[in-house]
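> @MW can you paste both from yesterday?
MW: sure, first one:
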Amino acid sequence: MRPNIIFIMSDDHAARAISAYGAGLNHTPNIDRLAREGMRHDATYVTNSICTPSRAAILTGTHNHVNCVTTLATHIDNRLPNVAKHLRNAGYRTAIFGKWHLGEGKAHEPTGFDEWAVVPGQGDYWDPAFISPEGRKRISGYATDIITDMSLDFIDRCGEEPFFLMCHHKAPHRNFQPHPKYNHLWADEDLPLPETFNDDYANRAAAAAAAKMRIRSDMNWEDLGLVQPEGPALRAGELMVDGWFARKVPELKSGETITVVCAETGENHTFDDPQKFAEFRYQRYMKRYLRTVQSIDENVGRILDELDAKGLAGNTIVVYTSDQGFFLGEHGWFDKRFMYEESLRMPFLVRYPPEIAPGSTSKDIACNVDFAPTFLDYAGVPVPSYMQGRSMRPVLEGNTPDDWEQVAYHRYWMHNDEIHEAWAHYGVRDQRYKLIYWYNDDLGQLGARPGGGPPEWELFDCQEDPFELKNLADDQAYNEVFETMLAKLDAKMAEIGDVPEHDSAAIRAARLDRAAA
């Protein structure tokens, strides 16, 4: 009997915000069930740490230079083949509910699905609009609950047919809006400050310091559940983007005082210490974020309970993941985009009782382009030659092949984007080291902008330096490691057909000259 496949994906859910991963920040008992009754995969990496491109890679099994969804401003050509089309053609009933974010209109809306209802753009947390073949309508309620309601209704109507369901939550994407029933969580306690919260970005490429993703200076009033005051930038903060009403909460400088107002309670909070105010912002951010996560966990539980009640648990693959990682105050940041570990690593938990051992874990490297081939493999459908990923099935079943490629490739194209000013880069990570090339060029990509600094290399020893605080690219003691990682980068780019912006021969010659000097 062919298995049903349920793919549950949230937006910006860091692995550290799932208790099965052991960070101790929160408790997610329902998501943890998947780890307890299946596998927690510890080395799943995104090929482009940003929403739209990651979703395209998952759907098509291809890298972004192939599916042409490179930035938030590029939309999928829905005439392309995708995993849902293959499964539907093989007799699966297919559906997607929730966040799509791959474009709207006839050229970009979901194809390959028997049923679909998706939120426009990022969607709303409360009373969200949905677009479906029947048109657009708003549904009263909380988005995470509604998306789950749609998913459960689809499961109930599938009968004996095998089904493929993509349940895509918009949560916990900013601006974080938790359901009120979880507002009590962490009301009387604070979360631990990350060890790297006060990072000064020394010993890193210039891109780290240039990014506008700092909790202390780049979050807006709504992010933190605070009342945005009226007035000019000196009082209300600078505009996030010209033409938007949203402003950033000003960074407090030494000798200044600021009073902010809680949007829910009206309580005033006054600060004259910049560090205390930065930590206050961190607590506001994290508590809102984690409370929003709690509704996702609740609704994962609803789906698992429904499978139990209908007797489907034993023949249903259930995957929980996020479209990428997310910074939870590490290096003082929120958001994603970078190839640094917190952003690069995706959570991936999967249960399939007949073939995946309960309580198992794996550190074999996999990427989001591997998801589609995995689903096809389990469904008994041939993996088409255009897909660039590889089925994770042997890894999930504890039979990793000897020729499994322990390399992840990442490329961020949206250079110097208007809001975050994150610079373009690509690189590879193996089981110990990470090599990043900051080519810092917009290359004419939609949504990218000129600017930034000259190209730079970064090399990190992720075993000895897990927080990636020391760039070893120019350390002669690591010349051999650099050369090995450069060869892996070149080989991977050649394999997938991506075009390099670096010249390896020139780089090797320059490094030899420097070593001889």
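MW: second:
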Amino acid sequence: MADAKADKTKPGIMTVLRSLGQAKTGYMLLFGFAAGLPYALVLGTLYAWLSDSGEIDLETMGVFSLIGLAYAFKFLWSPALDRVDIPGLRKLGKRKQWIVTAQVLIGASLMSLSFIAPSNETIALFSLLAGLAAFASATQDVVIDAWRVDVADEVATIDILSTVYQMGYRIAALVGGALALFMAERTGWPTVYLSMGAIMLLVGISGLWAPDADAGATLAHDEDLTDPHGLREAGQIVPRVRMWALAAVGVLWGWALITVGVFMVRSLTSNPEARPDSVEFISNTGPLIVIATVVVPALIAAWLVRVQRGGQHVIPATFDGSEPTTQTGKSLSPYAATSTGDRIMDHLYRALVLPLTDLVGRLGWAMIIVIALVLTYRITDAIWGTFAYPFYLCELEYTKDEVAIASKFFGVGALILGLAVGGYMLTAIGRMLTLTLGAFLAAITNLLYADLALGGANVQAFSDLIGFGWLVSHLGGDERLATLMMAIAGENIAVGIAGAAFVAYLSSIVSRGYSAVQYALLSSLTLLVGTLGRGALGQMIEEQGYYHVFILTTAIGMFAVVLCLIEWVRQARSGRAQNAPPPDPDAVAAE
């Protein structure tokens, strides 16, 4: 009832201002910057340095790009980040211990790169340091996402924190991209990476004072060594069944980790002739990894939830007419954890299986809607983004300078504006309405590019109508540049609104206690589906041209709008407030 009452209160600008005044919001901006900076430097700007070296060929650069797989498969080690403490650093906080450590490691790696001149002789060490930075960056992403969910409250809401995070991320992309190139032209690449590494170290030090929430870190059950996770109480799944479920999930996740690890090692250490095909790996093995680590474990979790609710394979309430207890030190339950092996099994079960049973248990059949929405919501810009530069430079024949002005500078500004608008919309009109409008706008703005593919007459007419073309012309550009800037601005504002809403939505459906695993799993699906669809889209561009591709991506985006409406109805029927904070573990399951 409290949630429903709160939902009827229409928050306004004062709510936003109160949120922005929180320390959590300031650190969220800082952490967003810290998440975006290494991604830009390692998976973007670093290739400019390799190109300038004059010694690294394109094939080697292509293999070098495989370090980006750390971001695609970061969910594989997310359970450890949820449950494992770093010796000596636990007092910093459940999330901060990993955030600070990752940021310091990123800073040290970037600074170390500044002392190495990339060449055929040093590329192995160069790759190792870049890979270490990417791994630490992906790890940082997982924990920052979990931190955002854990610290959100009624003032520093998950919607505002999600928006501010993306603003910091986009600012970092500008610093690690355009500013880094500007600095390299005047001071050299070593100075760039030394400076950026120092910035990451400063962020890591600043993070020591960030607030933290220990959601799910310390349970009341932890005081009892015979049942450290509350898994051996009456009504819980019996240990034998949990052991088989854990074994199945563990084998699948272990296979995925080994498969990705072997592929990375072979790619970075083998001769060019013996290197595996990265496109084939992503296209063929990528879906298998998702099935093994998401689909099958989710089915196992659904079965566990069903049998527990049905009273099957559960620990009984009494034995021989007496009440068992695990709280007195004299356990009467034959299911108590009496050995180190039992406690290790409970710990692994909580890390690998409980995040899935919690998600499936709360959402029920709605899990299908959520997964479908995750797979389709960002697919339009995720797939199309790879072909943006070929479209601008080759199809439309703009110069590199024009594209840099329109996309990197003006476009980033439009994206940040879209994030700001999206953040306000989340607070003013609610999460689901913003999510739905964001999906619609992100889809419909693909028609701006469809118009460009036909000559851009409509976009140019609108640009002239509002005086934008005149403004660009008086600033040194021309009408063609104004047309491109207008199209990019329209799409980026829409993507900013959609991005703010989508991150807030994902953050709202994961549990505080399992946020690292659940968010990493869901967000990785978005990244992978974009990767898998690029091959087919590239073939369609070759055969039919860009215009038909933009019509297709618009149609796919409309499918996401429909799913948003269905999810909106589901949440309304559940009685949960639109802008409610993320649920705690063991929340009441959805019907």
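> thanks! The CA atoms of residues 212 and 284 lie 40 Å apart.
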